[in-house]
Design brief:
- Belongs to the PDCD4 family.
- By secondary structure, this protein is mainly alpha-helical.
- It has a domain of about 100 residues: Alpha Horseshoe (Serine Threonine Protein Phosphatase 5, Tetratricopeptide repeat), CATH 1.25.40.
- The chain contains nine helices and four strands, in the order H-E-E-H-E-E-H-H-H-H-H-H-H.
- The strands form two sheets. Strands 1-2 form a two-stranded antiparallel sheet.
- Helix 4 packs antiparallel against helix 5, helix 4 crosses helix 6 and helix 5 packs across helix 7.
Length: about 240
């Protein structure tokens, strides 16, 4: 009988081939059974390769010479053009670190800790302005309102009752923008002293003497004591001896 040349699985005799080569007559020619088996294997491999290539053709993939699938537009690394586009070192050296320590390239800030020189103004620049060279920048401190004034100066005066340094109080008041609230400094100091000890009242007298002419003027002192006399009925509620003191 002639063996079936289709893609059917191998028969038992083909899998357990004996020591003697079996021959089959095809079209009048005697062909060994082993040659037929190899032909079947090769035909099956080619058919599987064609099936895979036709399935991947819809995705734009292609098959290289060695049977590996490549995407369209991607050059094989083995080709000369692929070597040109490869960013890896051709010499095989290097640790894979960024070039120039991360300071090279477009849109980068530079290496950490790098200090840039002061940029010189170009006179020929169309945006150059002569007034730029004469600008003086100062820190603007907003004047204190009534609520912020009491909240800021109360701890300063209370600390003064502990350390007794009038110069420190004077320096701290100079850093503040008191504005029209200067006359309120003696008012707040005397009000806090009335609630304290006799030593606090003595320290307040020394403080007002040292602040006069530096932080507050004589006019501010006069205005502050006029206000204290008008607010005396309210001070009596907290300090009953306020009129005598």
């Amino acid at each position: 009988e002639l063996d079936n040349l289709s893609d059917a699985p191998f028969s038992g005799d083909e899998e357990n081939g004996g020591s003697e080569d079996r021959k089959t007559e095809i079209n009048g020619n005697w062909i060994p059974a082993t040659s037929i088996t190899e032909a079947k294997i090769n035909a099956r491999a080619k058919r599987r390769l064609r099936k895979n290539s036709s399935r991947d053709s819809g995705r734009g993939d292609s098959v290289s010479d060695n049977g590996e699938t490549l995407k369209t537009g991607v050059v094989a690394p083995t080709s000369p053009k692929g070597k040109v586009l490869d960013r890896r070192s051709r010499s095989g050296k290097g640790r894979g670190l960024p070039k120039k320590g991360g300071a090279g390239g477009k849109g980068v800030w530079g290496t950490p800790g790098q200090v840039y020189d002061v940029e010189e103004v170009d006179i020929k620049d169309p945006n150059y302005d002569d007034d730029q060279e004469n600008c003086v920048y100062e820190t603007v401190v907003l004047p204190l309102d009534e609520r912020a004034f009491e909240k800021t100066l109360t701890p300063i005066i209370q600390e003064y009752f502990e350390h007794g340094d009038t110069n420190e109080v004077s320096e701290m008041l100079k850093d503040l923008n008191l504005g029209e609230m200067k006359y309120s400094v003696p008012v707040l100091a005397v009000s806090l002293a009335l609630e304290g000890k006799a030593s606090h009242r003595e320290m307040t007298s020394k403080l007002l003497s040292d602040l006069c002419g530096t932080v507050v003027s004589k006019t501010d002192l006069e205005k502050s004591f006029d206000r204290l006399l008008k607010e005396l009925p309210e001070l009596v509620l907290d300090s009953p001896k306020a009129p005598q003191v």
